[in-house]
Amino acid sequence: MVSDASIIVMSCLAVAVLVRARSIHIIAAYTGVAMLWILLLVLCRTRSPQRIGVGSKEYKRLIDATAIVAGTTAVIAVGTGNTDLRILIFVGLPAGLACLLIERWTWRKWLWRKAREGRALSQVIVVGCASDIDYVIRQLGKNAGPAYRIVGLLSAEPAVSDTAENGIPWFSGLDQLEMIIPILGADSVIVAGPLDGGNASLKDLSWRLEKSRTQVIVVSSLTNVAGPRISVRPVEGLPLMHVDLPSFSGGHHIVKRAMDIVLSAVALLALAPLLGVLALLIKKDSKGPVIFAQERIGTNGQSFKMFKLRSMVVNAEEELERLQSKNQGSGLLFKLQDDPRVTKVGAWLRKFSLDELPQIYNVLRGDMSLVGPRPPLPKEVAKYEGHVGRRLYIKPGLTGLWQVSGRSDLDWEEGVRLDLYYVENWSVTGDLMIMWRTFKVMLHPVGAY
Fold this sequence. Notes:
This protein is of the alpha/beta class. It folds into three domains: about 1-115; about 120-220, Rossmann fold; about 250-445, no CATH class. About 50% of the residues lie in helices and about 15% in strands. It has 15 helices and eleven strands. It has helices at about 1-20, 25-45, 55-80, 85-115, 130-145, 175-185, 200-210, 250-285, 315-325, 345-350, 360-365, 380, 400-405, 410-425, 430-445; strands at about 120-130, 150-155, 170, 190, 215-220, 230-235, 240-245, 290-295, 305-310, 370, 395-400. A five-stranded parallel beta sheet has the order 3-2-1-4-5, sandwiched between helices. Strands 6-7 form a two-stranded antiparallel ribbon. It has a two-stranded antiparallel ribbon with strand order 8-9. Helix 5 (about 130-145) links the parallel strand 1 and strand 2. The model has no long low-confidence stretch (mean pLDDT about 80). It is found in: Membrane. Keywords: Membrane, Transferase, Transmembrane, Transmembrane helix.
């Protein structure tokens, strides 16, 4: 919190110097804004242990708190006619917010480094049946980062061995829980699934752990619903969980489209020289056009031409049938790590995702969005089963959760799960984080072939 307060004070002080504030009233106003800003960071719980280090909620709360400060200051500025406060709104607050976001990102990088050393914000024991425990281990291993470190496992049924595959100690019997908590140094218990005895067992467990001040974390069965869509409303001691319906239109989609237009237009202008150089390299490397156009399926099943820099030989589509027997992918996807159709230049274009750059034009045209589900081929859509077609409820993206979570290393089921999660739970803040993660993946590619 000290670092947050320092940034806020320095931002307000810098504007005070800029406007050469000498009046005691102006200095008092700037001091009041700084104190309000610090207070709102606390009230908005921007450093909540449940939010810090992982996900976009921490950044979103920073932005929300700053927006409230800006709105309050704007009302005061209009009411008093104080032009110096307007300068603080349009210069000091945006600059301070940018510095706060960079500071939080820097702390997050430090926390992730500590996580790789085996340290985390919370040491947890996972409780439940073996299958539920295995699922939680897999998910936390991929996504928890510095938030949780699993120090022990506890199942109701007898354990197969004393340790799991990754060396985590495994215990049997819920009656041992209070004994192993201090031994393992745990501060939280994750209940991975339903316990024998139902809700009564869960209530009894939480009461037993009160003495050791151990937090109880319950894994929800709503595994693909994001937190902002869930709210709890107690009615006479009965906690009712409300799940908001996903929205596929409305104001936030207008904001998303506006962001697509502005950022794609700027990107096309900035990347024009690079695209020219890449075009020359492709022409020199192999025969054929620079741009490869392919039919893809967009929102509500509408087809469009998706553009890419050509990274394969001209007759790649005809060669595909011959290579089907070597397919390394699962489900409806074709994957081949050492695909003979890829050209020399195409290999490193694909490695760093540079072949995707022309899709920025698709974004500007409105066929795609900067962030969204993977754009599918018509033959894939024709074989969709169950709820997979929900991927088409919003525009496909130039990047997405699939792009920053392993790309070609993902199997079909995991790719579909990520796309469906995004479709129902996306947010502008989340999109900005995915764009940032995409930039990092392009510099350090994983699963790109």
